[in-house]
Write a structure and sequence with these properties.
By secondary structure, the chain is an all-alpha fold. The protein has one domain. The protein has twelve helices and two strands; from the N terminus they run αααααααββααααα. A two-stranded antiparallel ribbon has the order 1-2. The longest helix has about 40 residues.
Length: about 300
């Protein structure tokens, strides 16, 4: 993975220098970035078959052990990923949600500090900023969780706005992507800038690194199966990873359809639709594995009693 990301970094840098990746954000100060696509709600009949045909309908994921990592060109079409094909249908930028949608109310002024970072990450890596923002929301509620800028999480492994693992070395996940900030232009002003770089506690460094990681796992401008798998890879491959990817993608799709909403929750019907389209085949494989383990235990117990 380290070699693949190094090669990917060289490809990204070359694309940036050649002007192939994205274009500068058209968003004005105080407004969220423009939206790449008004994503459709997935259906199980179509989306699951697409995932299965692409070899992604297993719990191992698209990049299972022994399989080849995608090249920068194969991951997604960088040149087209930055094309703006739709804008949020709700005018006036981000909307405030009714109280209770998030545990802590997040002010519009605070969230505006992230818009230039999302826009730059989208421009450089071609990853839909709504997917990136949804992971940011899922991990630290837009950097408002109490431990965002200090220490590690309850598991003692991850930290910062995007909760990067810094302990799964010898090359940790953070080590692999921490230099992502070098490919973009750091905003002059944003919410939490550290004295040294790279830092998992710096909003720009961390969000850019997350964009590179999602890009390396196949995410692009579309909010569909590639985005789901990238979110699943971001969390880790288990049942909780399925739920995580379902919620992250559902939130991003909802934002694309109705406008970016800072304090809104995730609509359960949309989460269910994403699960049926992308999560269910993966969860079914986990259930099959669990059933096989139970059957093996029964066979061993039966032999022991004979």
């Amino acid at each position: 993975m380290a070699i693949a990301l190094c090669l990917l970094g060289a490809g990204v840098l070359g694309a940036i220098l050649a002007g192939a990746v994205g274009s500068p954000s058209r968003a004005t100060a105080g407004d969220p970035p423009v939206v790449l696509v008004d994503a459709v709600t997935p259906t199980a009949a179509n989306a699951s078959q697409t995932a299965l045909r692409s070899g992604r309908g297993t719990a191992a994921g698209p990049y299972a052990a022994g399989g080849e990592r995608p090249t920068a060109a194969a991951a997604h079409d960088v040149a087209s990923a930055g094309t703006v094909v739709a804008s949020p249908p709700a005018p006036g930028g981000a909307r405030e949600a009714p109280a209770g949608a998030t545990e802590v109310h997040i002010s519009a002024a605070w969230e505006q500090g992230f818009y230039p970072i999302y826009a730059e990450a989208q421009r450089v890596f071609g990853v839909n900023w709504l997917l990136l923002a949804s992971i940011h929301m899922q991990e630290t509620a837009f950097s408002t969780a109490p431990s965002t800028y200090r220490g590690l999480n309850f598991a003692g492994c991850c930290g910062g706005p995007m909760q990067f693992n810094v302990t799964n070395g010898p090359l940790s996940t953070w080590d692999l992507v921490k230099d992502a900030y070098r490919y973009g232009v750091r905003p002059a002003v944003y919410n939490h800038r550290t004295a040294r770089h790279p830092s998992i506690y710096d909003d720009y460094d961390s969000i850019m690194a997350a964009a590179w990681l999602l890009y390396s796992d196949g995410a692009g401008g579309a909010l569909e199966d590639s985005a789901w798998w990238a979110a699943y890879d971001y969390y880790g491959h288990d049942r909780y990873g399925v739920e995580y990817a379902d919620e992250v993608l559902a939130r991003a799709i909802g934002w694309s359809q109705h406008g970016f909403c800072i304090n809104c929750g995730v609509q359960p019907p949309l989460v269910q639709a994403v699960y049926e389209a992308y999560g269910a085949p993966v969860m079914a494989s986990y259930e099959a594995e669990a059933a096989a383990v139970r059957a093996a235990h029964r066979r061993r117990a039966h032999r022991a009693r004979r």
